[in-house]
Amino acid sequence: MMTAKDEFIKIYTENITRRGSAELLEWIQKTDFFTAPASTKYHCACENGLVMHSVSVFNTLMEKHFDEETDSMESFAICALLHDLCKAQFYKTSTRNVKNDETGQWEKVPFYSIDDTFPYGHGEKSVFLIERFMRLKLDEAMAIRWHMGGFDDNNGMYVSKAYDKYPLAVKLHLADLESTYLREKGTSAVRR
Questions:
Q1: DSSP per residue, 118-157
Q2: DSSP state, 101?
Q3: 76, 149, 157, 161: which sits with the fewest CB atoms below 10 Å from its CB?
Q4: How does pLDDT run across 100-138, given as a tens digit for each residue?
Q5: pLDDT digit string, tens, across residues 124-181
Q6: Whole domain around residue 49: which residue ranges?
Q7: Do residues 19 and 134 lie in contact, with contact meaning Cβ atoms separated by under 8 Å?
Q8: Does some domain include residue 192?
Q9: Number of Cβ within a 10 Å radius of residue 3
């Protein structure tokens, strides 16, 4: 059975052929992208969660929104697989004391915390990191930048304009929402 990392690399190498893509993948493999969680306590808050989420978003985006006549497979792969690249080198594993309800004893348990050494934002940070290696098309950059929609802490006027002008941005946001809140339930190491 293929791992999420295997699926990611297969989708990436079969569909992303743009100049700089090989160097970007090489850089990604030097980070913790393939072992990092996707969040601290929400969706895919577990080892390998970030790559699991990225593949899930790709699958959702393809199943729900790909139109062979108007959409680019390469653009869909870039946006889905790399929209959360900003989360590479973003989390650290820590421990905290939690009281065991059965024994009444305090135990050290692992948890993920944020250690953002490059606080550049969310979507904009992913765009920045990708473009260090590979140029994005305007609709790809907008989709990745605004994939958080109303969950981002920026002025809603801009996201609305981006969604109005770039359908790929709307499609990525919808696929990200569905993967996070409907498909990835139960993939967290710790549920709160």
A1: S---SHHHHHHHHHTTSPPPHHHHHHHHTTTGGGSSS-HH
A2: T
A3: 157
A4: 999 999 999 888 888 888 878 889 999 999 999 999 999
A5: 999 999 999 999 999 999 999 989 886 665 556 567 777 888 899 899 899 999 998 8
A6: 4-90+121-183
A7: yes
A8: no
A9: 13
